[in-house]
Amino acid sequence: MELLLGSMIFFPMVSSVVGYVIGKSRKNMRDYFADAAAGIEFFVALYLLVIVLHGGGSRIYLEISGICGMGLHFTLDGFRALYACIAAFMWFMTTLFSEEYFAHYRNRNRYYLFLLLTLGATEGVFLSADFYTVFIFFEIMSFTSYVWVAHDEKKESMRAANTYLAVAVIGGLVMLMGIFLLQNTVGTLMFDELISLSGESRYALEPVLLQILWAAGICMLFGFGAKAGAFPLHIWLPKAHPVAPAPASALLSGILTKAGMFGILILTGYLFLGDKYWGSMILVIGVCTMVTGAVLALFSVDLKRTLACSSVSQIGFILVGVGMSGILGAENASAIRGSLLHMVNHSIIKLVLFMAAGVVFMNVHKLNLNEIRGFGRKKSLLHFIFLMGALGISGVPLFNGYISKTLIHESIVEYLALVRMEAVSGVFDARFMQSVEWVFLISGGLTAAYMLKLYIALFWEKNNDTRVQEDFDSIKGNYMNKASASALTISAVLLPVMGLFPNQIMGAVADLGQGFMHVTGDAYQVDWFAFESLEGAVISLLIGAVLYLLVVRVWLTKKENGRTIYVNRWNKYLDLENLIYRPILLKALPFVLGVVCRVLDSLVDAIVVFLRKTVYRDSRLPHELEEGNRFTHIAGCLANGVERLLNATVWRKHPRMVDYEHKYALIHEELSEEQTIIGRSLSFGLLLFCVGLIITVVYLLV
Fold it and tell me: Which of 664, 615, 667, 625 has the alpha carbon at shortest distance from 643?
């Protein structure tokens, strides 16, 4: 079993290199090889999931010592096996779809190389048993997936890729800082050992240690939140998805954001288990993320950008559930189950929706709603696939999204009931949580509104250009091949099947995650089709219908030459990247820090000069100090002798009068003074520190 566990991580990485070599000469064989590698990975993951299920919760451990000084640690339990299987399934489906999607793309060999490399790195994240292993594969995943965003190598692609990489690198460095703090404070990074710091034992810690733990947790939350797309670090998602190839967008949204959520779950379920203040912070971040993404999606007129902003919003829904799990304490079963299920649901839903968007793009090569409007008419299979994803993410009853959103909503309602009965001493009062509940329902309504906007534009409205609509209708039977159609159909059918059997399928999936998150209480038994359960979904759907009719059809459209077109009324100056991050991080902050460093550097030298001239005065007068050294004295005497000889023989009429001994002494004094200033400067000290740090890192790696 340990060998299979290791193969989940390293088999795709080895296959990526083999596939790249094959692709140098035989491109078709490379495509088949990539399909086979992704398929083998999925079936191995499925086999391990079955083994874990039949093992009654038994776990598999794998340790690889001697790697980067601390070794790599992997483990397999129910939740890890589940998400390893979901990741492998999504890679298998997108790899099958990629063959047709990339038929006319450049750099396909490079794409497949980094596609399989990222698969291995992502599996490494989900199967990690400690923060150090998570960090190693997290960074590998960030750098290999960067190539997806930059694949087209166009100006907008490179800018989005730079944003993605900047967020990933900054997040990774801050996360590493938190890992160092945690290791230095508690002496371990193993998840199972960190659980001892949670609960009542946390209050036995010294206040200073508790503060350090919080600092470490916030640093790691920053890194994981950046990858998950949590507010305010979500800026890369709306930029990366429109320019990345559709199969890559499906994986970026469906799986790579869940790698960030995996880290947040570890922090919440292991290091801060039952901490209501941590849960409150996650809840606030989740609410901001949920609303921001939904509003941006509603305003967008780009198909993939809308789906990208939707991913931000759905991550907010998950974070709300995670936050509620911390606030509810021992009564957090519904919140945890809802969060875990919405992670799974969102992964599969975005696989369906982004691949459907890829079908549109590979036929039309456009994404603007006004240009692709009417493409889906008379395309029944694509219509069915997109409709399944739209209904699922909108939380319509009988679909999977309804189950997870209802559980998260139930956790909010449960908290309100406990507060009224004074059975829980929460950080927030009932009025605030009622506001959170309404924001949750309105965000669900926004989801329904922007998905309805996409659905009607693609499949019911006609294109404003009659000839374009005729071209769309003419390709009703050959818009995707059988392999792509199979991948999309299989993925889409899962959504209603999961929703139709909430207890048998969704309940079993949620059970796999309860042990991972250390849920001790019994889950609240929900009657999925009772009025109390349907109420939240019905309210959200009604809000969505009203928003579509009053906002989308009235305010977000306009008449132009007798035709109705969609308009984006979002002010471009409200872009956080251009408004805050680039001006501050790339311009203002480097300038300010540069000025501070120059001031500190000069301050040290100024203090030294001031002390030498005042307190530490030299005991001898300047003219009494010996000039130069023995070398300058000898060289100067020789040069003076040669000068006198030349004056007596060659330069009789115009003799030169230069005191070389004094000249060389001045040069020596100038060089000595410069060396002294450099040696005492802050810049020189920082330079030596960096050199020492590089030598230490090289030593650890070797």
Answer: 664
Q: What CA–CA distance (Å, rounded) separates 570 from 592?
A: 32
The DSSP annotation for 76-139 comes to E-HHHHHHHHHHHHHHHHHHHHHHHHTTT-S-HHHHHHHHHHHHHHHHHHHTBSBHHHHHHHHH
Nearest 5°: phi and psi at 619? -75, -20
Dihedral pair phi/psi, residue 328, rounded to 5°: -75, -15
Q: Which residues of 434-445 are buried (b: 16+ CB within 10 A; e: fewer)?
A: eebbebbbbbbb
CA distance 275 to 283: 12
pTM of the model: 0.82
Closest CA to 319 of 225, 199, 441, 437: 225
How many alpha carbons fall within 13 Å on the CB side of residue 129? 19
Strand partners, 60: 76
Instruction: Give me the pLDDT at residue 622, please.
Output: 46
On whether the CB atoms of residues 16 and 118 are closer than 8 A, the answer is no
The kind and range of the H/E element at 62 are strand 60-64
How far is 414 from 533, CA to CA, in rounded Å? Answer: 12
Centre a 10 Å sphere on the Cβ of residue 276 and count the other Cβ atoms it contains. Answer: 19
Position 620 scores a pLDDT of: 45
- Please check whether residue 376 is in contact with residue 458, taking contact to mean a CB–CB distance below 8 angstroms: yes
Q: Give the separation between CA 15 and CA 19, rounded to whole angstroms.
A: 6
DSSP 255: I
Phi first, then psi: give them for residue 128, nearest 5 degrees: -70, 150
Distance CA(283)–CA(321), nearest Å, equals: 8
Cα distance between residue 87 and residue 90, in whole Å: 5
Token pair, residue 254, equals 């469906």
Dihedral sign of CA atoms 428, 431, 436, 437 in order: positive
- Structure token pair of residue 318: 């998950």
Go through 33-60 and write b for each residue having 16 or more CB atoms within 10 A of its CB, e for each that does not.
Answer: bbbebbebbbebbeebbeebeeeeeeeb
Q: What is the pLDDT of residue 424?
A: 61
Cα-based angle 320, 321, 324 (whole degrees, multiple of 5):
85
Residue 72: its H or E element = strand 72-76
Identify the CA nearest to 311 among candidates 424, 426, 231: 231
Cis previous bond, 232, omega within 30 = yes
Q: What per-residue confidence (pLDDT) applies to 78?
A: 82
Using the Cα atoms of residue 69, residue 72, residue 73 and residue 79 in order, give the sign of their dihedral: positive
Q: What is the CA radius of gyration of the chain?
A: 32
DSSP 3-state of 479 = coil
Residues 262, 83: contact at Cβ < 8 Å? Answer: yes
Q: 282 and 271 in contact (C-beta within 8 Å)?
A: no
Helix/strand/coil for 73: strand
Query: In a 3-state reduction of DSSP, which class is residue 568?
Result: coil
Q: What is the 3-state secondary structure (H, E, C) of 277-310?
A: HHHHHHHHHHHHHHHHHHHHHHHCCEHHHHHHHH
Q: Note the pLDDT of residue 201.
A: 62
The identity of residue 91, as a single letter, is: W
Which ranges of 187-256 would DSSP assign to H, the alpha helix?
191-194, 207-228, 236-243, 246-251
DSSP codes of every residue in 323-342: HHHHHHGGG-HHHHHHHHHH
Nearest in space to 117 (alpha carbons), one of 270, 207, 15: 15
Average pLDDT per consecutive 10 residues, the chain (702 residues; last block may be shorter): 81 89 84 90 89 71 69 84 91 90 83 90 90 89 88 83 84 90 85 74 70 89 89 82 86 89 89 84 92 91 90 92 84 85 92 91 88 88 93 91 90 83 66 88 93 92 85 80 90 91 85 78 73 87 93 86 82 70 70 78 73 62 55 73 69 63 72 64 66 73 58
